[in-house]
């Protein structure tokens, strides 16, 4: 709320339940189990969010409040992963994102790495099954990204079955490593080699939390990318 107020921009806060009947659907992180779900009120929540955004934009327009088509997205921890993953699915809809506390491993904008396929939510292999379009890396490069973590952050979801299945976990370890700091460094290197428009920031003396310094930096990042 404080970030939106500082930017003087409308704020949409989507809320998606996490089903008790299927704990592997980590809805608020937009993981592979969630994106594959086509049943019930949680069917394809990525498409539900797009509808929410368009509905909000239309309601604002009806009140003569004109906003840009491309949006800012901000998230931390599981919601940071949601934002990070949503951006590879629909880069054409996003102007800039800020994502923090994402286990040292932002999604890799690659279909494979050294011959190893990278399925969603590790990479972008076969995401056309969900979006109807192949991954557009040139469109993705237009999205400004602020990706951050605390140097003392130990909130790692890799060992947990609700976040990664055995196959996904094995791929992550092979490609990025088992330690969060190693994954963070390797991810930054990969993004750099691909010339992705992303800035990686590590905050000293910070754990899995958003400090006033981080909040100020996020506001400055979005201010820079408003025009």
Task: Describe this structure as you would to a colleague.
- Helix content is 37%, strand content 13%.
- The chain has 9 helices and 6 strands, in the order H-H-H-E-H-E-E-E-H-H-E-H-H-E-H.
- A 4-stranded parallel sheet has the order 1-2-5-6, with helices on both faces. Strands 3-4 form a two-stranded antiparallel ribbon.
- The model has no long low-confidence stretch (mean pLDDT 95).
Question: What is the fold's blueprint, element by element?
Answer:
Layout: H1 2-7, H2 32-35, H3 45-62, E1 71-76, H4 78-89, E2 94-100, E3 112-113, E4 116-117, H5 128-131, H6 137-140, E5 144-150, H7 166-175, H8 180-193, E6 198-203, H9 212-224
Parallel strand pairs: 1-2, 2-5, 5-6
Antiparallel strand pairs: 3-4
Provide keyphrases for this structure.
37% helix; two-stranded antiparallel ribbon; Rossmann fold; 13% strand; 227 residues
Order of helices and strands: HHHEHEEEHHEHHEH
The count of helical stretches stands at 9
What percent of residues are in strands?
5-15%
Structural class: alpha/beta
Could you name the ranges where pLDDT drops below 50 across 5 or more consecutive residues?
none
Regarding quaternary structure, what we see is: single chain
- Strand order, main sheet: write it out: 1-2-5-6
DSSP helix fraction:
25-40%
């Amino acid at each position: 709320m404080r970030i939106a107020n500082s930017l003087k921009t409308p704020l949409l806060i989507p809320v998606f339940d996490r089903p008790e009947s299927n704990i592997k659907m980590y809805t608020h992180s937009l993981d592979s189990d969630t994106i594959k779900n086509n049943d019930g009120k949680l069917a394809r929540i990525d498409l539900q969010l797009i509808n929410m955004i368009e509905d909000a934009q239309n309601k604002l327009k009806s009140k003569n409040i004109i906003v840009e088509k491309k949006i800012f997205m901000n998230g931390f921890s599981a919601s940071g992963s949601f934002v990070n993953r949503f951006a590879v699915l629909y880069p054409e809809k996003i102007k800039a994102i800020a994502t923090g506390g994402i286990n040292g491993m932002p999604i890799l904008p690659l279909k494979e790495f050294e011959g190893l396929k990278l399925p969603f939510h590790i990479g972008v292999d076969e995401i056309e099954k969900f979006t109807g379009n192949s991954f557009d890396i040139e469109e993705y490069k237009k999205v400004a990204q602020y990706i951050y973590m605390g140097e003392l952050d130990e909130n790692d979801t890799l060992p947990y079955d609700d976040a990664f299945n055995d196959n996904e976990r094995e791929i992550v370890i092979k490609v990025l490593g088992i330690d969060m700091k190693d994954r963070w460094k390797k991810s930054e290197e990969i993004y750099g080699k691909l010339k992705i428009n992303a800035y990686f920031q590590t905050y000293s003396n910070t754990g899995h939390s958003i400090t006033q310094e981080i909040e100020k930096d996020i506001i400055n990042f979005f201010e820079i990318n408003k025009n």
